[in-house]
Specification:
By secondary structure, the protein is an alpha/beta fold. The protein has two domains: about 40-165 and about 300-375, Rossmann fold (3-Layer(aba) Sandwich), CATH 3.40.50.2300; about 165-295, Rossmann fold, CATH 3.40.50. It contains 14 helices and 15 strands. It has a seven-stranded mixed beta sheet with strand order 7-6-8-9-10-14-15. Strands 2-1-3-4-5 form a five-stranded parallel beta sheet, sandwiched between helices. Helix 4 (about 95-105) packs parallel to helix 6, helix 7 (about 165-180) runs parallel beside helix 8 (about 195-210) and helix 13 crosses helix 14. The longest helix is centred in the N-terminal third of the chain and has 21 residues, at about 1-20. About 50% of the residues are buried.
């Protein structure tokens, strides 16, 4: 009887040990259970791949994936392959929020990249803060509500790779005064976006502080097509430049209709002009004496920029624009942070992003500021017959 009981206890112990061993399978991120190192790291790609501003999202996504392909081909990050989880938010803020939630709660991503526009990116910030997972945009330029909250406190898990609207508005006002000798300006503003408002406010403040005068301030909303009444009303006024803070869809039509009415004054804008669709809408002949602030210029002779351009042409059979370059830098930036973090851990990655010093990218070198904004230069690009013809670099004030 005692022998049978001892045998029963022995078999029970063996069974329990087997059950525990069976529960110790692979975990996420490459199966690092049992002490094995992870073999992959997932990164969310939440961009506008369809809808009103798809040209921005598609460009950023292509740049990011090019960077990831290069990194993976070179052995990955700390021995791990980057696995992008790509989703299309359809250029809608509600969809961007929903997809951010899915990426962070179901896909086990270490960080999320995008969206491209300020409004859509801001819609994902509460999700990032709630889940303690960093989000980074290469192109969300709004002054308020991005890297800081309404009280001015830094959003701990939010970063961007671009300068903000204040810098762009200041840059274009200074360019108008110093490079074009303008003293009188007209503003035709997209009043339906924070982007347009931030640019207009900062252009006005800087231009007037330098002794300039805003002789007219007109407005439109996204998806407007006919600007002839606005342009006719300003045509009789005395002005040197027109500043159009808005996106390419409306800017292209404004430029074409202005030139058709015989308005030949220089037209200024910001990075929202940077799309091949601007040329499609305005036409080559209209795109002369047009200038806009941007993050990158294909005219840059830096070897890193030239290498990027050659690589992009080889991969996509087209010329890259600033959003491609920003996306590429974003892909390299998140990989650099993961490498410095030394762990597949959102908290460690967040700390690495915040402590960035001397990052070198095709859109410029930068340190990450305490407000999670990069300290970097801008360029002002001049167009001739729709092609980039000049580039002036402007350092942070």
């Amino acid at each position: 009887m005692n022998k049978k009981r001892a045998l029963f206890l022995f078999l029970t112990v063996i069974l329990v040990m087997g059950l525990f061993a069976g529960c110790g399978g692979d975990s996420d991120n490459g199966g690092n259970g049992g002490g094995e190192a992870p073999t992959e790291v997932k990164i969310g790609i939440n961009y506008e791949l369809s809808g009103e501003v798809a040209t921005y999202g598609q460009a950023c996504k292509d740049g990011i994936l090019m960077a990831f392909d290069e990194i993976n081909a070179a052995g990955g990050v700390n021995g791990m392959q980057i696995v992008p989880v790509v989703v299309d938010n359809k250029s809608e803020s509600a969809e961007a929020t929903s997809l951010a939630t899915k990426l962070m709660t179901q896909e086990d991503v270490v960080a999320c990249l995008g969206p491209a526009t300020s409004g859509n990116f801001m819609a994902t910030i509460p999700v990032a803060m709630q889940n303690s997972i960093p989000v980074i945009s290469a192109s969300a330029t709004a002054d308020k509500g991005v890297t800081t909250d309404a009280s001015g406190n830094v959003n701990e898990y939010v970063f961007r790779l671009c300068f903000n609207d204040s810098f762009q508005g200041v840059t274009m006002a200074s360019f108008a005064k110093n490079n074009l000798n303008a003293t009188k300006a007209v503003i035709i503003q997209d009043k339906s976006s924070d982007y347009g408002q931030g640019l207009a406010d900062n252009f006005t403040a800087t231009f007037e502080a330098a002794g300039g005068t805003i002789v007219a301030h007109e407005g439109y909303v996204a998806k407007d097509k006919d600007f002839n009444s606005i342009l006719t009303s300003i045509k009789a006024k005395d002005f040197d430049v027109i500043f159009v803070p808005g996106y390419y869809q409306e800017a292209g039509l404004i430029i074409k209709q202005a030139r058709d009415l015989g308005i030949d004054a220089p037209i200024l804008g910001a990075d929202g002009f940077d799309s091949p669709v601007l040329l499609e809408l305005a036409g080559e002949e209209a795109l002369n004496d047009v200038y806009f602030s941007n993050h990158y210029s294909s005219l840059d002779e830096d070897p890193l920029v030239l290498e990027f351009i050659d690589g992009f042409k080889a991969k996509y059979n087209s010329d890259p624009n600033a959003f491609h370059a920003l996306g590429y830098d974003l892909g390299k930036f998140i990989a650099d942070a993961i490498e410095r973090a030394g762990a597949v851990d959102p908290e460690a990655v967040k700390d690495a992003l915040a402590s960035t010093k001397g990052f070198v990218g095709v859109t410029g070198s930068f340190d990450m500021g305490e407000d999670h904004n990069p300290i970097k230069a801008a360029v002002v690009i001049g167009l001739e017959n729709g092609a980039q013809a000049s580039s002036v670099k402007v350092d942070p004030q």
